[in-house]
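TEACHING EXERCISE
Course module: macromolecular assemblies
Task: Read the component lines below, then compare them to the predicted structure of the full complex.
Student: A.B.
Group: 4
Components provided:
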Amino acid sequence: MEQKKNIRPSSDEPALHGANSRLVQQEEQRQDLGFGTKLNDAYSRLVNKNGSVNINRVNERFWDRINLYNRLITMSWWHFLGWVLVFYFVVNGVFAGTYLLVGAENLQSSVNGEPYGSFWKAFFFSSQTMTTVGYGHIAPVNFLSSIVAAMESMIGLLSFALVTGLLYGRFSRPLAHVRFSKQSVFSPYLDVNAWMFRVVNNRANQLIDVEMEVSLSRLETKPDGTRYRRYHGLKLERNKVAFFPTNWTLVHPITETSPLYGCTPEELAESDAEFLILFRAMDDTFSQQVHSRTSYRYDEIQWGYKFVPMFDSAQHGMVALDLDKLDDTAPAELN
Amino acid sequence: MEQKKNIRPSSDEPALHGANSRLVQQEEQRQDLGFGTKLNDAYSRLVNKNGSVNINRVNERFWDRINLYNRLITMSWWHFLGWVLVFYFVVNGVFAGTYLLVGAENLQSSVNGEPYGSFWKAFFFSSQTMTTVGYGHIAPVNFLSSIVAAMESMIGLLSFALVTGLLYGRFSRPLAHVRFSKQSVFSPYLDVNAWMFRVVNNRANQLIDVEMEVSLSRLETKPDGTRYRRYHGLKLERNKVAFFPTNWTLVHPITETSPLYGCTPEELAESDAEFLILFRAMDDTFSQQVHSRTSYRYDEIQWGYKFVPMFDSAQHGMVALDLDKLDDTAPAELN
Amino acid sequence: MEQKKNIRPSSDEPALHGANSRLVQQEEQRQDLGFGTKLNDAYSRLVNKNGSVNINRVNERFWDRINLYNRLITMSWWHFLGWVLVFYFVVNGVFAGTYLLVGAENLQSSVNGEPYGSFWKAFFFSSQTMTTVGYGHIAPVNFLSSIVAAMESMIGLLSFALVTGLLYGRFSRPLAHVRFSKQSVFSPYLDVNAWMFRVVNNRANQLIDVEMEVSLSRLETKPDGTRYRRYHGLKLERNKVAFFPTNWTLVHPITETSPLYGCTPEELAESDAEFLILFRAMDDTFSQQVHSRTSYRYDEIQWGYKFVPMFDSAQHGMVALDLDKLDDTAPAELN
Amino acid sequence: MEQKKNIRPSSDEPALHGANSRLVQQEEQRQDLGFGTKLNDAYSRLVNKNGSVNINRVNERFWDRINLYNRLITMSWWHFLGWVLVFYFVVNGVFAGTYLLVGAENLQSSVNGEPYGSFWKAFFFSSQTMTTVGYGHIAPVNFLSSIVAAMESMIGLLSFALVTGLLYGRFSRPLAHVRFSKQSVFSPYLDVNAWMFRVVNNRANQLIDVEMEVSLSRLETKPDGTRYRRYHGLKLERNKVAFFPTNWTLVHPITETSPLYGCTPEELAESDAEFLILFRAMDDTFSQQVHSRTSYRYDEIQWGYKFVPMFDSAQHGMVALDLDKLDDTAPAELN
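Instructor-supplied answer key:
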């Protein structure tokens, strides 16, 4: 509110404002995937092969950095089970310590003698309380140990509820079990050439309504000489299939309208070109949407190669898809 | 990068490139459901009656082949409960063996005498630990048996969490409880003919926003004589309804624009014709999308038959839908 | 395949087939919500006030009729809790009987004397096993009672898993907490008239992206004199709002293009007119879609009435919405 | 049905009805976000900064006012855990009272002496029953205490099921972890000016398919001098991005077609202008939609300021996004 100024232009500038709106219109037609135009100095890839994004973040808040739920869902199974075990032993250790503080003699034991020390007695009592097993051969006898046990059994129920929720969430999480070819190719296609990559459904019978979106990101030069990152949506010969039982070769034909028309490998490398891939499908088991992302950089293109078919029709009259042939290519004369 | 070649065409070929783009455009207009054009030698159906797809897969990875979650969710209830029982007994057996290794005498028993052998004592102790019942009339008394029991109760909680998650997942899974007619028919329709099939909602009051997509897949011959599989979307008289309380007869009128116009039964058989059906709806209980798929082959068409109405209006003045009449047809003179 | 007939029309009927396609086109433009055109004899409403549909079903399969999951989710809380209690007591009763069969003396009791009969001892032991409480003051001592207890604790865990899943499913089920006005009105609107109804969001701050679809269903007469049910989509002055914090009056203006143009109350009654309402929105808490349906019949229209505003602006300078005024109408002179 | 009147206009008024439909069309083109046109006396904001809506509600039903599930899901963690603790102690207290009523002597205790009073014995027994720990060193010995315990263990299982469902529901709830800039700005943009605000993704790698919708709500004057609230959708230079790894500056260029064209700060204040923001995205972890809402009022606009870039490219050659710079602005000469 500091600089109050009428933003209505003076009426003697109609020509300028015709020009204005043209500039605005140009800007509106610019395609931007959300990375902005200024990422032009890094020469690092925007999207990693696994679909994550290459941005460093400063001053992120603690819980945002930790991102606990997301991390627990996406970490590997070994890490997850390891953390559960650590959590279980640490919490039991802490409660064992608490029972010792209250006094180990307040845990009445029906076991003859005490074959293990009082820490372990408290530890085992704690584990039996936390998991609600409660054999009762060790039991709290005074007020303090009883109230601690009452709290621990509640905390145990809630903690295991979270852990088991996470366990099932991990197990049931809808994922796009697809594999992209490691390389893309520049192949002959009909009587032009085309840029192609291939994707295969790793699992049978699960993905339907599959959709693919491909963009080319590269550095271009403005008339005034400054370089900026520009994005081009690439038209695919086919970007949607209803079924995805086998493999799918995505084809971008290099016609006159393609931003790749007349491009040399050297030009692609020089402009830091990167092909960004967005994959969307519907997982049929629970009708949930799944996504996948990946990218091909200029140095992941094989020029003058084509993909070798993955079908092997010799097997007992039934068509067989060999998943190991996904990355197989062969030289092919470009048009 | 091996074969560096400028893909910009020499400038003296403008005519060719006009032709090029026409070929590309043709290819773009080709409809493909995701099966590709090469499945022309098998003469087996693409989509089975239950909606699964007929593709053999080679070199699938272990976890992809197992597809554990999907399998546990989609197997029959008897199989699922059988596996749960097997799992329960095997895990308890393994833990019983572990307690025997540690020494059966370390499971203190308050039972007078031991009416069953020490294996069964260990087994029952294991089951009481795993389910967290923990009566305590059998209890671990030394360090090793206590630590094994602590682990087992945790593992038991996590395992049962998975099983109960699966149980509820199976129970609450949104399914399209619809039944397609076994046969489709070629019937007279207004003053043309039409290909029709019928679908019924097995359960009352659940599906809304129902949508149907039908494609014809058949072998056709290119000008050069090679045969390839081609796909045609079939225009339906109505492909969407907001409510689905009763039955629904899907009608594809055979007008001049239909790929079936003028087709004979023999031609359909010869071209290995298959009608692929995609069904989408919204389950109203939890507002979840449900899908169903099926197909009709050329030998599942009744020529010159029509569907008999499923409504029986005689019942107490209220309209009654007889679900058993779904497959009933009667001869009808074609136009 | 019985009646093989070439469906290609003889080539001397081109004029007829032009006519053909016109009939087909007419049929395609017919709007049908999924009830079909033949429900014209019943004179009962298609959609009940609570959104359910009036169709009687014959020969429904057992599990389809039961529709267990849907029923358990949608029954009232009192019914649900009642069934849980019944289930709990019946299953415990059955297991108590089993323990008696095995022999009540095999349930060792540390209780001095037996203050209740052996059935209740078995019953309480069963409940302690099924809920996995397992005090242990009653415990199984022979093989058979132990194995039955091992099975019961497993069955108990799985049953309670289902029940608790259902409990939380019911609790977290996304519902459109909206209330429709009991009556609709024919009111003056600008300088025409309009058919209006009103809906209110019962709860604050939850529904966004709200959408309404209204159809008129009525009996009409074909040129040949047969009566059939026809559906008209009704154009609303506004059928979508991004926020739904208050009430919303839905307005269908009666202009020349409206199927209600020039209609009298008698005509509406005679044609068994029914206005079908579909409501869709997004519940903001978990971003889930919710639906609601209702209908107004010809006898639920107040002619020459208008809705009274629900806002009461006198309260402390803040706008107050009085939810009890939803059904309030006042006479208004029609244009 | 009281005022039966033919709504068909008399046929000598065709001109009027041409006028009629023009009024109706105007009304249809009016944009309304769901707040209506009458909220013009309050001069309070429609949408609060946190996205909630400013409406007072009268005569709300009890369960609608409580809105239990929604409240338990959206309250702070401290409140939630506090309520769980209160619930746990109150329920145990109530059951302890019940056991005392039945007779504390019916809870047999194997503890030597009773180091705490009989209330606490009953309380601890209750907590051991409710959590199904069931040590058994306190156990029910008569019929009444046993049946109460059987009920409590069932109620305990169901209650903890709800609590743990809520716990995991809270934990796994998909939220738009985004932060909007506190102020919006009027900045120079190309060769016009623009209204801008900025939003940042607080967490890395989670939101895709991000969409923004902006509306201007302000009081305007009808030709007859009455004031009413009007809504204008604001055209954004870009309202959709596929990736959202960093920050995003939303730009509404003030061209001739903008409702803000030629507006002064005083006019905005006088017309109670408010910019309403709707944010939609897809959370990638579980492919769930997330929403966010906010608004900027006329007094949250900085005139003649621009946003300072949030990127800091100096860090080790990798682009770094400084989340603390979200609100940083600098003066800029308007065009």
